[in-house]
Amino acid sequence: MQEQIKNINTLEELQALYTATFGKNGTMTMRLREMKNLDNKARAALNLENTELRELFKTRQNEIENEILIAGLKKQKLDVSLNAAPENRGTLHPMTQSLVEISFILESFGYKPYTGPEIEDDWHNFTALNTPAHHPARDMQDTFFLPNGNVMRTQTSAIQIRAMESDGVPIKMFGIGSTYRKEMDATHGPMFGQIEGLYIDKDITMSDLIADIRAFLKRFFEMDEVVLRIRPSFFPFTDPSIEVDLKWKNDKWLEIMGAGMVHPNVLRNCGINPDEYQGFAFGFGWDRLAMLKYNLPDLRDFRGNDIRWLKSAGF
Ligand code: DAH
Q1: Looking at ligand 1, which atom is closest to the CA of residue 238?
Q2: Quick one: 51 and 98 in the same domain?
Q3: Residue 179 CA: which ligand 1 atom is closest?
Q4: pTM for this entry
Q5: Which residues contact ligand 1 via a Cβ below 6 A?
Q6: Same domain as 103, residue 252
Q7: Count of domains forming the chain
Q8: From the CA of 245, how far away is ligand 1's center (Å)?
Q9: Range of the domain at 45
Q10: Could you tell me the CA-to-CA distances from 240 to 85, 197, 205 in Å, in that order?
Q11: Mutate to test the pocket of ligand 1, among 242, 243, 282 (most ligand atoms within 8 A of CB)
Q12: What pLDDT does 127 receive?
């Protein structure tokens, strides 16, 4: 019997033998029924045989079930060496990619990220930035005005005002965001992006500004050395104001940013004493930086959201 059980290979056959042994008229059932005629020793032997047989059935059942499971798993095995159909994978848009890189670099320099609304009020976009109504510098930016007197933010400089108003000084912050002006050609669109930086503390100087700009450009463009040209300029919210040109790979000068020492009026407008605190601010063109880094010539394609163009440009 023991041998017989061991040689069974299917659950059906095992079940059949089990019924023939332990079923209503099974061989073991019959023998157990006659047990009363046996002496003690024979009874004990029969009991033992009964228990061992049942265990043997159970063991064989487990073994067969396991074999079935393993055979099933073997059949399901995936052939991972088979070539898969090519898959279209998305990538980050160059604006997003540059946003991540710029934020990473500025944060590593200790600048804290801030945001502000794209529909901005006159105070944050102009007046607090030392550009009161009728100030001629308002003409530097062709503004989209909204019927209620608000504007589409023309510059991320508005974010520095919000940051100083909410957190005071000392402050080391940056903001990246969309800005809007009425202009349209190959290098200008009505919607573009800017990066704003601000560092105000007790003894911040123009050389700190230039050092940070240089370090930032080196990291962002992955250049060993950057050659800068610092030109005097005018912005109502900085004094002195500068413009920074970067010597590009083709030896041409690229106008890359505006910056300067924050005007005392701007600090006063944010409730900060300019005799105690001073510092610098800078503003980059976000699109400009991304176009240069990824070698993309036309801003309109760049912001056009045409996936064919993005693919052809390597994104
Ligand atoms: N807001 C200026 C612009 O849109 C850029 C700029 C210049 C920002 C100088 C600054 C700065 O913070 O100090 O042209």
Answers
A1: 13
A2: no
A3: 4
A4: 0.73
A5: 155, 157, 196, 235, 238, 258-260, 281-283
A6: yes
A7: 2
A8: 14
A9: 2-75
A10: 60, 16, 11
A11: 282
A12: 97
Cis peptide before 240 (omega within 30 of 0): yes
Between CA 145 and CA 149, with CA 148 as vertex, the angle to 5 degrees is 50
Domain boundary among 75, 103, 124: 75
Do 224 and 260 fall into the same domain?
yes
pLDDT, position 205: 97
Q: Give the mean model confidence (pLDDT) for residues 97-118.
A: 97
- Nearest CA residue ID for atom 12, ligand 1: 282
CA of 237 to the centre of ligand 1 (A): 8
CB 197 within 8 A of CB 260: no
Q: Which is the closest atom of ligand 1 to the Cα of 283?
A: 8
168-196: burial string, b at 16+ Cβ within 10 Å, e else = ebebbbbbbbebbbeeeeeeebeebbbbb
CATH code: domain of residue 241: 3.30.930.10
Output the CA 249–ligand 1 centroid distance in Å. Answer: 25
* 101 and 60 belong to one structural domain: no
DSSP state of 83: P
User: Dmax of the chain from CA atoms?
Assistant: 123
- Ligand 1 centre distance from Cα of residue 258 (Å): 5
Q: Are residue 202 and residue 170 in the same domain, yes or no?
A: yes
pLDDT band at 299 (very low <50, low <70, confident <90, very high): confident
In a domain, 89, yes or no: no
Q: Are 211 and 124 in the same domain?
A: yes
Residues 165-183: what's their mean pLDDT? 96
**What pLDDT, on a 0 to 100 scale, did the predictor assign at position 306?**
86
